[in-house]
Design goal:
With 219 residues, this protein is of the alpha/beta class. The model has no long low-confidence stretch (mean pLDDT 96).
């Protein structure tokens, strides 16, 4: 991290807890944020994995005081469009891309390959740290995250719509799911915390079921 101090970075921003914690750590270490990149599923009309609407992503962008490049893409064009977004970010001065990956090797290799093609350095501030420790750190820092997506084949549906607290994290672990959701058990939307100018307001309109996934319809 020390040799990256002062470098400008773009962040792969899912709006979830791991990407936000990675951005927080990068800023605290002296890196300079210039842009967020969020991939947006053109089939579901929501962000990939975390199922966040464009309106909420833009509100988060405003609260974080960082512009967001909303990359609207199909699955088939995902890799190409992400690389294009990185290349464009480099053209705006980015030198590094920040990712929230923790310990899944294949994910990190994919990110490294995209950055290599774009001519950017890849950096994952959370890499190889304890999943439980990272969840507790995120909560202790004062961030607030809503559980927006659950894979019901890996975790009870009852956690959908819960705010991620220490008690909820412990209950998730007791259920047999990974406390951090690193294997895709659950995803979150961070709506307040140290990096935010203001709390992001939202309304829960209901739930949507797709195969074994259930997600909140929040707007």
């Amino acid at each position: 991290m020390n040799n990256l101090q002062g470098k400008k970075f773009v962040a792969s921003y899912s709006a979830g807890k791991d990407s936000v914690l990675a951005i927080y750590r990068a800023i605290k270490a002296g890196l300079l944020p210039i842009e967020l990149i969020t991939t947006y599923n053109t089939d579901s009309n929501r962000s990939w994995a975390h199922a966040i609407t464009e309106n909420l992503i833009q509100k988060a962008s405003a609260s974080l005081s960082l512009p967001v490049n909303l990359v609207k893409t199909s699955s088939a064009q995902y890799e190409k469009n992400f690389e294009t977004a990185l290349i464009n970010a480099k053209g705006r001065g980015a030198e590094v891309c920040i990712f929230g990956d923790i310990d899944i090797k294949e994910h990190r290799e994919w990110c490294s390959a995209r950055c290599h093609k774009a001519g950017l350095l890849q950096y994952s501030p959370l890499w190889k740290e304890s999943r439980k420790k990272l969840v507790y750190e995120f909560i202790d820092l004062g961030f607030l995250a809503l559980i927006t997506v659950i894979d019901t084949s890996r975790m009870p549906k009852d956690f959908l719509g819960k705010i991620l607290t220490i008690d909820i994290a412990r209950e998730i672990e007791k259920s047999g799911a990974d406390i951090c959701g690193e294997n895709g058990e659950y995803h979150t939307f961070v709506f307040d915390g140290p990096l935010f100018k203001n709390k992001i307001e939202f309304n829960v309109k209901g739930e949507v079921q797709r195969d074994n996934y259930v997600f909140l319809d929040i707007q």
